[in-house]
Every structure is written in structure tokens, then in C-alpha cells.
Specification:
- The structure holds 2 protein chains of 2 kinds.
- Chain A is built from 1 helix and 4 strands, in the order ββββα.
- Chain A has one helix at about 45-55, and strands at about 1-10, 15-25, 30-40, 40-45.
- Chain B has one helix at about 5-25; strands spanning about 30, 35-40, 45-50, 55-60, 65-70, 80-85, 90-100, 105-110, 120-125.
- At the A-B interface, strand 1, strand 2, strand 3, strand 4 and helix 1 of A face strand 1, strand 2, strand 5, strand 6 and strand 7 of B.
């Protein structure tokens, strides 16, 4: 399968979320998986500040 | 007056201290983990098909586990997946998919109700010059 890399990183709180995989344009897509790769572990003390940078 | 703990209560105290220390260490940093969400899990969470090919799991020799999802072939069609992040953390995302030969396909992945209910995070993905379906 081919890979399309994400446009940017993001930060989330722990929890369960829903994600939509949505067609925008072009022909048919065959989708294998979506993968989330973790960034460097975040120290708890700095979590709030980093999270706000992404909001 | 100081009471001496008997051996069994001392042992219990050592266990409690060990548990507290382990809990403290695990909370020192938030270790995010890599997550892979297989597309073929979609039927449990819903989809929207406007026409064309059905949105369905199908065999694919190149796909992980031999299954992928076909049928996203009209603008605004979608399928929904569930993802659980066990820890607060920062991630980058990617998607593996195929398109037909010489075809450009644009998809968007929307993480709903994130960072707060009613908002969403979006990531656009474009495959240019597809290599065909395997």
C-alpha cells in the first residue's frame, strides 16, 4: 500500500475519539489503515503548555 | 509509646511503598504509544455511501492482515473509526491507501470532538499518480 504522510503533528488528551476518513476528490481509494506515531514523550509538567500551542 | 510492627504488617507496608513508588514513576512522564487503526473495522462505527462502489472490506494482497476498504469514490463519502489514546500526548498521523493508475486521490482524516467537543482536527492526504490496486 502507498503511504500519504500527515500534514502536521497534533496533541490530544487521553480518551476515545471518532475519526472520519472522507473522500474529497479524485477516483476511488482503497484504504488499509491510519497510523498515529507518537512524538517524544511529554513531561507532565509541560503538557498543558504544549497542548495550548496546538489549539 | 512506639509499637513495633509485626513481620506481616511490615511486609504489607513494603508492598504498599513499592506500589506507590511505581505509580509515581509511571506518572513522571506521559509515554504516548503508536497506534494503528485498521480501516476494515469501520462497519461497527458507520459509513456514508452516496453511490458508485459500495464501501466494504475487501481482500488486498498488499494490505496489513490482507484486508482493506474499497468504495470511497465520490466526494463527501466517508467511513468512521474509533481510536483510543491511552495517554495525553503528541502524534503525527499517516494513512496507507491505494488509488488507480495515474489517478490522484485526495482524502481527509477528521478527528472529531478534538480538542474540545464540537471542534475537530483535520489532516489532508493526497496520492498523486496512483500505482493501481494490488
Amino acid at each position: 500500500m502507498l503511504t500519504a504522510a500527515g500534514s502536521s503533528g497534533f496533541c490530544v488528551d487521553a480518551g476515545t475519539y471518532f475519526l472520519l476518513v472522507q473522500h474529497v476528490s479524485g477516483g476511488m481509494a482503497r484504504v488499509d489503515f491510519i497510523e498515529f506515531e507518537s512524538a517524544t514523550p511529554v513531561e507532565a509538567a509541560t503538557w498543558g503548555r504544549i497542548k495550548n500551542m496546538y489549539r | 509509646m512506639i509499637e513495633r510492627a509485626n513481620p506481616s504488617s511490615r511486609h504489607l507496608a513494603q508492598v504498599v511503598i513499592a506500589v506507590v513508588l511505581l505509580a509515581g514513576l509511571s506518572g513522571a512522564s506521559l509515554a504516548a504509544e503508536d497506534l494503528r487503526i485498521e480501516a476494515e473495522e469501520f462497519p461497527a462505527y458507520g459509513f456514508y455511501n452516496k453511490g458508485g462502489e459500495d464501501i466494504r472490506a475487501s481482500y488486498c494482497s498488499y494490505a496489513s492482515g490482507g484486508l482493506a476498504v474499497d468504495g470511497l469514490d465520490r466526494p463527501d463519502e466517508w467511513f468512521k473509526l474509533r481510536v483510543t489514546f491511552a495517554y495525553d500526548g503528541c502524534y503525527s498521523s499517516r494513512i496507507d491507501y491505494q488509488s488507480a493508475y495515474d489517478d490522484t486521490v485526495r482524502l481527509v482524516v477528521r478527528l472529531l470532538d478534538c480538542p474540545v467537543p464540537g471542534e475537530e482536527l483535520r489532516a489532508d492526504y493526497v496520492l498523486v499518480d496512483g500505482f493501481g490496486f494490488g
